[in-house]
Design the sequence.
DNA sequence: CACTAATCGAGACGGTACGTCGCGTCTTGTG
DNA sequence: CACAAGACGCGACGTACCGTCTCGATTAGTG
């Protein structure tokens, strides 16, 4: 898609940033339905053609605008397990409950059916967290804080699922008390 | 929407049923994107006007077609707690992982942003399960099988979230082993 | 269409009159496009079914409402020819330039293509005028006021055409001066 | 409507021509009622959106397709008055009695009520004829062939009205004999 | 006095056209 | 090459009107 050789007029790098900003603004103001090709282009001061030169379809742009990079939950390996799990829970909630993310997620998840590559891209955002959580879990098992069959994927899916379900079905319920309760639940569930 | 008095020509009851069936068939064959007003009408042997007379928008019809009534998980109050929780987990998975439901859910969840009344309608499907689970939990607390702070809403949201996250992000992973692992997780998390 | 035997509930005679009045009111207020089945029924305090029991289609009702009976131009046989012709011109103009008629005519003429029976019905309204004009013309020929080849149908068509063209293309131009000028034109054209 | 600056992708000029041809074909085959947005688009090998980009509504397209330019009656200034008038009468008849025009006119005239701008557009088609007739009439007055009060607008309205009335009410009667009779009528009516 | 038969109000029915909108692509002219 | 601009094919949207139908409730005349 990108120009392999260095030939030709180079792409205007501001368009990427402007498009990201436009998407985020539209998401907050009008929800996922307001993120129209024409609307994004107008808001970003460019045209649809410039967008489609960069992203294969609108949802890809939205995904990139909402989740620009990998989630950084910085599991402070060394703190005790409850503290680290609380960090994961809180981090996942904070990342997905941004006004922008909350507006985009339902639509993005629905588009997975149409654009399978979005699926992989979204999962990729959690890859680092998964690795860190896997490592942390191994340490906890060695320390006798978690039973040996504990799996990081189940754990992470549980957290993400709880956040998504809360986001979609009971928005507003994911306060700090919820973080504490879910953390406690996870800690207890890890005991042998 | 419905005719309050008995006046006027009564609605043809077959249209409701045919529309439901048409939506389910289209969902299975072509996914959520195939559920078009014209396609549903054609398949149901009726017209768009007849559909819009009954439902304010297509997603309402889809919701009704996919979740015709309340989820019945028949918590067998009396069995031991692990068995009952396994029933809830398995029941939620079975209800939401039907080919029809799996095809409809992502789109349906995304439409909540546009049609807020869909939100209440979807939650309503779990009202009975919540009540039953709440009762069961109280019994478990009294029997010393669960700690007193355990909350049915958190528990149910955890189950639903796990299913939805699994459905959206890792379809195919929700096998019987997953049911057993999640049940074990929940049982352990309930211990004081 | 009507009930041949006297059996059954008799029709409510007020509906005819109310429907006529409703059509005329809607024509004046919103033009031909506002004369909808539902609108007429609502305005007349009845229902579409009652209307279609009486008229085969809406244009028939409109025609009846706008031109309830034959045009009565009362050619005062005996006056001089210019006076009589002025009466015809003025009468045709007055009959077709009513706000109601002016609003209905273009639509009615267009429906002729769909309902050929409307055609005959509309022509019928001029039958009496034609006969009278034909007689008057014969007298004029005998008196040497008109050349022998003068034909009433050509003459009448000329008058009606002039009114319709004025109505459709230059509304407002059909004032009394126009009546005098057209009358003069016709009188001169009849001279041998 | 049109793109003022030369920017953007230029409109495909074939679409205009194809749409015109499609409208004419549909008019002849199925009458005014067959001229549907979808039908025109399909026949022209394009889409409804492309049509609505060019014309504000269907009747405007129909008008343009049926009367692409101004009527050219080429009054042969110089022939004697009866010959020139016969040319006007015959020309107006020929222009409005084409199968295409005859099918379109009733509908088009009826739409004037909904789209007032159509009115001006239709009158414009006769502007040149009016000017020429006005000039010719002045010559005739100077030559003593017509009385001084003769007005071209009255005359033209008379001709057009006669054609329209004949078209709408007595189709088939506008043969060459009718042309001669009407011409004679006009010539006599112009004498002082 | 029941019975019959057509009308009444109300409103749903199938059908069809309307005009709009969004998508992702394409085609110009201009850097 | 990229860019701005905007037309293109495609297809869905939700609304409106048409003329018909199906109800339950009236309202006469008839047996």
Sequence:
């Amino acid at each position: 898609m990108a120009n392999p050789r260095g030939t030709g007029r180079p792409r205007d790098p501001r368009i990427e940033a402007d498009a990201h900003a436009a998407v985020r603004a539209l998401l907050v103001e009008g929800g996922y339905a307001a993120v129209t090709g024409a609307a994004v282009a107008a808001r970003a001061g460019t045209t649809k053609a410039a967008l489609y030169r960069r992203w294969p379809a609108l949802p890809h742009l939205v995904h990139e605008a909402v989740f620009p990079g990998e989630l950084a939950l910085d599991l402070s390996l060394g703190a005790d397990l409850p503290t680290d799990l609380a960090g994961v829970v809180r981090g996942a909630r904070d990342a997905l409950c941004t006004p922008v993310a909350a507006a985009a997620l339902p639509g993005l998840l629905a588009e997975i059916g149409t654009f399978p590559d979005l699926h992989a891209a979204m999962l990729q955002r959690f890859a680092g967290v998964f690795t860190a959580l896997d490592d942390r879990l191994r340490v906890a098992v060695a320390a006798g804080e978690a039973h040996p069959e504990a799996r990081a994927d189940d754990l992470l899916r549980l957290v993400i699922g709880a956040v998504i379900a809360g986001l979609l079905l009971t928005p507003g319920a994911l306060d700090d008390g919820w973080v504490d309760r879910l953390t406690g639940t996870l800690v207890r569930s890890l005991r042998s």
Q: What stands out?
A: Residues 13-66 of chain A form a domain with the Arc Repressor Mutant, subunit A fold (CATH 1.10.10.60). The mean pLDDT of chain A is 91. The longest helix of chain A spans residues 13-30. Chains A and C do not touch (no CB pair under 8 Å).
